[in-house]
Amino acid sequence: MLSKIENGQSAAAVATLSKISEALNIPLSWILDNRPETDLVLQPKSMRQSKVGHEDMGYSYELLAKSRFSNIEPAIVHVTPKDANLRHEPYTHSEDEFIYVLEGEIYLLYDQDKHHLKEGDTAYFKGTKPHLFIPVDNDGAKVLTVFIEGIE
Fold this sequence. Notes:
Layout: H1 2-6, H2 14-24, H3 28-32, E1 59-63, E2 72-79, E3 96-110, E4 113-118, E5 122-125, E6 131-135, E7 141-148
Antiparallel strand pairs: 1-2, 2-7, 3-4, 3-5, 3-6, 3-7
């Protein structure tokens, strides 16, 4: 599977990439973005990779910034429209997660409970609990997501 991901033959869910980054003891952003690391992160929209991943996972995402000196990684998750959403199994990952619904509406399936979130709504939760963004309609949604690596 790792070989297929490396060679672009298979797309990996953020949860899978998170587990790989955890096993390698590197930030998730290192896997999502391959630019050199500095202590100032400027990322003009025109220079940002617009979407990573495949819609058959139920979402795609764009990494907003990466940093070795921070335990947070912001991204925008593009939730696939309802009729195209093929993902039904919740994800888990090691990072806590803060979300802010930028556009549209989603159901946040979290630890077997379903929560309806609209534009402007937020949530903060443990990534180790099973969770999934489910689109409400065929307009899809955009969700600002901030992954926060725990400090132990």
